[in-house]
Each structure stands twice: as structure tokens, then as C-alpha cells.
Amino acid sequence: MDSLFDRVYEELQVIARRLTKELPARADLDPATLVNAACERLLASHKLNAEDRRHFFFIFGRAMHDVVVDEARRATALKRTPRQEQLLSSTQVVHFDRTTMTLAKLAQLLHEFHQVDPDAAEVVRLRYFAGRSMRQVASDLGITLAAVRAHWSYAKAWLAEHVGGPTDH
Q1: Can you give the chain as a three-state secondary structure string?
Q2: Residue 41: pLDDT band by 50, 70, 90 thresholds?
């Protein structure tokens, strides 16, 4: 396990740096902490059983996504009025392609979208939260690049429609 992490730690840090930029200023999560928290989560749940390198990044990206969403929720879980909650939530802006929303809203929409199209939702998680390229996602999921592009286009349109943003991309 140690030699595995020695080989992939830098790549995990790159993903974690990108993800932690999306967190509100109140969040106490730096890239190293994110990688460690995701690792702890996977080891505790015995889900770090990857078949190969791409499957490892798939699993780890999913775990980091879950940690980031939990941290964003925690950062805004202080007692406040509904108006204060709305104002604070609106500052946690993420940019999914050209659509702007809060991190909590993106997590909620992805959960809903997973019920509609689980494959396209996984493409979003790998592209957005794990920072994988289209080719890497195709390899990770064992599907064609054309299928990834189709899932990505559909996901962007669905998410934009459900957040009230533009759909012409």
C-alpha cells in the first residue's frame, strides 16, 4: 500500500488542489488533508480494492468528491437564519462548464441526475471532481470516447436546465 501511494500521491495532490479551490473560505480542508481524509474513508469502508490504476483513480476521485461535499456542508452548518444560510450558500460558487451554482447544489443535482442517468453522472464525477480528461474517463469506464462526449453533453444540458443556467453549450 505504501509503494502504491508513493507512486500516485502527486497525482492525487493535483486533483485535491483543484477540488479544495471550490470550498468556501471557512472550510478547513487543504489538499493533503483531502487526500488523507479520502484515504481514511476508503480504508475504513474497505472500498480501496482497485483492480488497476484507472480503477484506483476512479474510486479515489469519488471518495475525494464525497469528502469535499461533506466539508462544504459542514462549513455552512452553523446555526443561522434561513436568510443567512442562503447568503452563505450563495458564496460557495462552483463553475460547471458555463453553469454557475453552489457546491451543495451541484452535489444535490448530481445525486438526482444519477437516478436519471448513472453513466452520465459518473462521467461528470470523473471529469469535474477527479479532473480526468475525456480519454481518461473513457478508459476508466471502459466506454468509447464518443460515448463519453455524449454523456458529457447530456449532463451539462441536464444540470444547466435544473439549475436554471444556459443550455447552449
Answers
A1: CHHHHHHHHHHHHHHHHHHHCCCCCCCCCCHHHHHHHHHHHHHHCCCCCCCCHHHHHHHHHHHHHHHHHHHHHHHCCCCCCHHHHHHHHHCCEEEECCEEEEHHHHHHHHHHHHHHCHHHHHHHHHHHHCCCCHHHHHHHHCCCHHHHHHHHHHHHHHHHHHHCCCCCC
A2: confident
